[in-house]
Amino acid sequence: MRKLRTIEMDRLTVEEFKQADKMPLIVVLDNVRSLYNVGAVFRSCDAFRVEAVYLCGITACPPNAEIHKTALGGEDSVDWHYFASTNEAVDHLHHEGYYVYSVEQVEHSTKLQRLHLDASAHRGYAVILGNEVKGVQQQVVDSSDACLEIPQLGTKHSLNVSTTAGIVVWEFARQLML
Predict the structure, then answer these.
(1) DSSP H or E stretch at residue 142
(2) Do 150 and 109 form a contact (C-beta atoms < 8 A)?
(3) Kind of pairing, strands 79-83 and 99-103?
(4) What is d(CA 148, CA 159) in angstroms, rounded to the nearest whole number?
(5) For the purposes of burial, counting CB atoms within 10 Å of the CB of 155, is it exposed (0-12), middle (13-18) or buried (19 or more)?
(6) Residue 101, SS3 per DSSP
(7) Among 3, 43, 49, 81, which residue has the fewest nearby CB atoms (within 10 Å)?
(8) What is the pLDDT of residues 84-134, one digit of tens each?
């Protein structure tokens, strides 16, 4: 097997990306402090044509050299919006008709492998990813429609937020786009 060269991968330009159909998913970052995590989330969102990223609270916004270091331009292709609070973003999403999931370990959470999305429902979805230490704020969990949880089998109780984003966005893409 021969590795493909970048030119052989037929990737979209930023302009083509902006015009392309997007996955009906918005990724919300709830007070994510690491700019490298923010950048990595943008990169994953670019890979799966996510509709937008909402940056909330202390989460840094582009342009920023540290975000760019891991986003590698994903911050230029993926639309993003800043909200002073994550609750403000959730209120906006609900007003726009999105079904909002927090990705958090809570009572009665839906395990990611049991998530069933309806690609024909013509509705948008949002997933909220929390702070590296505190997770998604309780008041944000309370205002979400449901919670998703990635099952873990080891000794640790959490994954890095950018790793979580990749796993969750992939599952949405698998069900809605692929």
Answers:
(1) helix 138-143
(2) no
(3) unpaired
(4) 13
(5) exposed
(6) strand
(7) 3
(8) 999 999 999 999 999 999 999 999 999 999 999 988 888 899 999 999 999
